[in-house]
Specification:
The protein contains 2 helices and 4 strands, in the order ββββαα. By secondary structure, the chain is an alpha+beta fold. The strands form 2 sheets. A two-stranded antiparallel sheet has the order 1-2. A two-stranded antiparallel ribbon has the order 3-4. Strand 1 and strand 2 form a beta hairpin. The longest helix has 6 residues.
């Protein structure tokens, strides 16, 4: 299985999109939109901002094929 390491985040505040490199060893709980400055946090039930706002889920979720939390 090929793991994708880039995900395009869409800001729910301004609608702008930006492709970012995802960390492989940790969840990213916060992301500041580079366009409007909004601080994004995971939605309820998601482990990180990539699972909530990205077009590709984080690497641990991709590996497990699971939904929800991947980080303890």
């Amino acid at each position: 299985m090929d793991i994708k390491l880039e995900s395009t985040l869409t800001c729910p505040n301004c609608g702008q999109r930006k492709t970012e490199q995802m960390p492989t060893d940790a969840c990213q709980y916060f992301y500041e939109c580079t366009f409007c400055g909004a601080l994004l946090k995971p939605l309820a039930g998601d482990c990180c901002v990539y699972c909530s706002y990205g077009d590709v889920p984080c690497p641990p979720i991709q590996l497990s094929g699971a939904q929800g939390s991947c980080c303890g």
